[in-house]
Design brief:
Number of domains: 2
Distance between the termini: 52 Å
Shape: elongated
Order of helices and strands: HHHHH
Number of strands: 0
Strand content: under 5%
Number of helices: 5
Radius of gyration: 20 Å
Helix content: over 70%
Largest sheet: none
Amino acid sequence: METFWKAVAAALIAAVLGLTLGKKDFSLVLSMAVCCMAAAAAAVYIEPVLKLLKELEAVSGLDGGMVTILLKSAGIGLVTTLASMICQDAGNASLAKTMHMLGTGAVLYLSVPVFRAVLELLRDILGGI
């Protein structure tokens, strides 16, 4: 948790520096640097989750492709949120909203195999009645 608190402190310091110095360009670059640092710090917390997902996959007999889709979707969500926040900080709200739309489309695209598996399961269940 020490990494978390360091990242929070860096973000708060960057926010105060950005407000104090008042230079829009410097503030944006500082914000982007801290966002990238925080994203790298978040990777530390992902490793135990990946181990747990591998255990669940082995125990439950889940298809590895489904777990991969879940992880890719989570990654797309995180990257989309980060890009959207940076666009918002840069004063471009329309681009930030477009990033959200792009991320949603990408996750839906990745989910097609999951939807197909659910559809096939429904066909099997309804066909058995």
